[in-house]
């Protein structure tokens, strides 16, 4: 079997297994670079570790970031894993072809002032303004991805119970809780009497009553950038902001992992370092010793009714 035929079969397999259109598009756009470099008519069985190393060297010549290189290699590893499982290649090459290290960018989030400007820009009585406010709040207050907002259905919005069911990556569903404010805005938008007559089960609709698309949301952010004066405004910025504020407000990293839909803690750990200021400032509220020893003055502490004489000059701080 040629490598091009294997790729065509791989794409069909991903579609049959219910992978998202965005994931399929990513495979279709990035894998052909390797196919062209290797040779579309050559047999898939001939791919070796040297082939992969040569491809990486070719990628390195392109004017792309290290994170983009990682995404190209990640898609290729998924394809080669599938080829190994199908018996088209004997060696499990991805085990020997590791992802290149990427320079991790500092997480950028919205400031309190920018969030206020965004909410002001989203205010208004029109149906579209209300829809856009709901979309942004689901990203900013619950950490939803762009695709998860698009794929959200009416049946998966559980307003009475205070959560939604999001269709995450790999077609995996998860429960995502809603804040009180977001829940109230969603309740207003989801009112059956206000919804147009439509055959779509999507939670969010266009003016014509059709399901929103990625283009719908991109156009929304394009307008919001001008209205708010925040040129870096985008869907993932809202998700980053949610994750950071969630930790700063006392949320734990393990629950955050579940809410965001990450399979490991590695992606979640990136938010920890940007919250250190509030973690340090708020630590006395959670310090085991501070909560055990209730400070009553410069001279004495009482623990379990035992008075301890303390010389302030001997304190280590």
Distinctive features:
hpI Integrase, Chain A, 317 residues, DNA polymerase, domain 1, 2 domains, disordered C terminus, two-stranded antiparallel sheet
Q: What is the structural class?
A: mainly alpha
CATH superfamily of the largest domain: Intergrase catalytic core
As laid out across the biggest beta sheet, the strand order is: 1-2-3
CATH architecture of the largest domain: Orthogonal Bundle
Tally of helical segments: 14
CATH topology of the largest domain: hpI Integrase, Chain A
**Secondary structure: helix percent:** 40-55%
Helix and strand sequence: HHHHHHHEEEHHHHHHHEE
Low-confidence stretches: 297-317
Q: If you compute it from the alpha carbons, what radius of gyration comes out, rounded to the nearest whole angstrom? A: 25 Å
- In percent, how much strand structure appears in the residues? 5-15%
Q: Tell me, what is the CATH class of the largest domain?
A: Mainly Alpha
Question: Major sheet, described briefly?
Answer: 3 strands, antiparallel
Strand count: 5
For the record, give the distance between the C-alpha atoms at the N and C termini, rounded to a whole number.
Answer: 72 Å
So what's the overall shape?
Answer: globular
**Would you tell me the overall average pLDDT?**
84
Q: Write down the domain tally.
A: 2
Would you kindly provide a brief summary of this structure?
The protein has 317 residues and is mainly alpha-helical.
